[in-house]
Design a protein that fits this description.
3% of the residues lie in helices and 44% in strands. It is globular. β4 and β5 form a beta hairpin. It has one domain: Jelly Rolls (Sandwich), CATH 2.60.120.
C-alpha cells in the first residue's frame, strides 16, 4: 500500500492524510482587510507622483528576525530588512474621479525597485488585483523600503478614498534565503 509517500515542505501526512505544519518561512504581512478610512492617517498623505503609500494594519505580522516595520497610528509606510534574499510583493486599490490609473512600486532612497504595478478604474469604482509589484532582492546589509506612487491619473482625493485602500491593499515579504 502506498500511503505517506508524499511530502509537502518536508512534512508527511498523518494516517488520515492530513498535513499539519506552520509556515517556517519568515514573513512580513501588512494589510489584512482592515476597515479604516484613508484620511484617518495622521501623516496627511497625498496621492501625487512620488508620494508615499500607506497600508493600515493594527497588528502586522513580522516573523523576519531583525526586520522592522515603520508605522504611525497603525498606518505602515515602510519596512527595513536585514541581509538576506526576499520575495517582496504589494498590491494597492484606489477610487478614481474618472477613468484613471495609478502605478506604484517599492522604493529605496531615490531608486525604484522591482516591477511597477498598477490598478485602474472608472469614477467611484476601483479594480483590485490588476497589478502586483513583485520584487526579488538579495541584500547584503539592512535596507529600508517605502511604497510609492510612480504615476497617477484621475485618482480621487484622500478624503474620498474611504476604506478601499485599507480593505484591498497589502504588502507581503518572504525571506527565502
Amino acid at each position: 500500500m502506498g500511503h505517506n509517500n508524499i511530502t509537502v515542505n518536508n512534512v508527511k501526512p498523518t494516517i488520515n492524510s492530513e498535513i499539519s505544519f506552520s509556515s517556517a518561512t519568515p514573513v512580513i504581512l501588512i494589510g489584512r482587510n482592515n476597515s479604516q478610512s484613508y484620511d484617518t492617517n495622521p501623516a496627511s498623505p497625498t496621492l501625487n507622483v512620488g508620494d508615499a503609500l500607506y497600508v493600515y494594519d493594527a497588528n502586522p505580522i513580522n516573523t523576519i528576525n531583525g526586520a522592522t516595520i515603520t508605522s504611525s497610528s497603525n498606518w505602515v509606510s515602510g519596512v527595513t530588512l536585514p541581509a538576506g534574499t526576499y520575495v517582496m510583493s504589494m498590491l494597492f486599490s484606489f477610487v478614481f474621479t474618472a477613468s484613471g490609473s495609478i502605478q506604484y512600486a517599492f522604493k529605496t532612497g531615490s531608486s525604484w525597485q522591482g516591477s511597477i504595478a498598477g490598478c485602474g478604474g472608472l469614477k467611484n469604482m476601483y479594480l483590485n488585483g490588476t497589478g502586483v509589484s513583485v520584487n526579488v532582492r538579495t541584500l547584503t546589509a539592512n535596507t529600508s523600503y517605502t511604497f510609492n506612487i510612480f504615476s497617477a491619473n484621475n485618482i480621487d482625493t484622500v478624503s474620498n478614498q474611504g476604506n478601499v485602500p485599507s480593505e484591498q491593499s497589502y504588502i507581503l515579504i518572504e525571506k527565502v534565503g
